[in-house]
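anyone seen this seq b4? input:
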Amino acid sequence: MSLDHLSILCLISSILAALTYMVGAFWVGRLKEKSGLWVLIIGVLLHGVSIVSSMISEDGSPQFGFAPALSATTWLVLIIYTVEHWNIPQLRVHGSLAALGALSVILSIVFSGHPLHIQASPWLPLHWMLGMASYGLFAVAVVHAVLMQRAEKKMRMAQDNPTGLPLLTLERLTFRFVTAGFVLLTATLIAGVWFADVLYGPTHAIKFDHKTVFAVLSWLTTGALLLGRWRLGWRSTLASRMLYVSACLLLLSYVGSRFVLEVILGRTL
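predicted toks r here
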């Protein structure tokens, strides 16, 4: 497939994915649960095509940026949530997730990223995949933490649980994703430190720039959260707030740094 055809495929799949997500966002409450799930599945498939096709620039080199990173993270969240819903039918489809998917796709159309001028080793894609996977798992954990807090609030008001799942089940799912995200973030940091000269070349040895500092702070916060839960039984509001802080720090690590470079400073690295 030529680069022109790839660009057209990227644009068409992105537009169709955004439209599909918008249908889900505005109509999911009026559709049957299974119909809403299929809307999400179609949106996720189109979204995946747009992500893959957007990673090649016009000159054939790989490209990436803060918006494609957000798009990929949202895509992972929607994949995991869709699979989870398929296996746990009680979990309800939420239009807000579809709206988030539409927003991320639209952002990636507007800010498509920049070519990556890398003399990279084969280890670099592995490093990126570990990083994006940890982003996705933390984002899924945040989604479940929000659902958990909503369910807890409704229970205190003696109202129906809007999530469709028991509170303890949501809590277990949340911390499973937190633990998995922590493991992948640890692997990402180890890869970044251990293979710094291999990943980016001998002139790019590991250094404590903004990206690294925020990633390490996120790792420390998540480690404290898991240790506090294990030793002190932290849960509910305290645990959720610590998770939100950790996720925000991780978001600032790559997406925040790239946003400042690309949009505010107008640089490409």
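Strands lie at 63-64, 114-115. Residues 145 and 240 are 6 Å apart (CA to CA). kinda curious what u guys think
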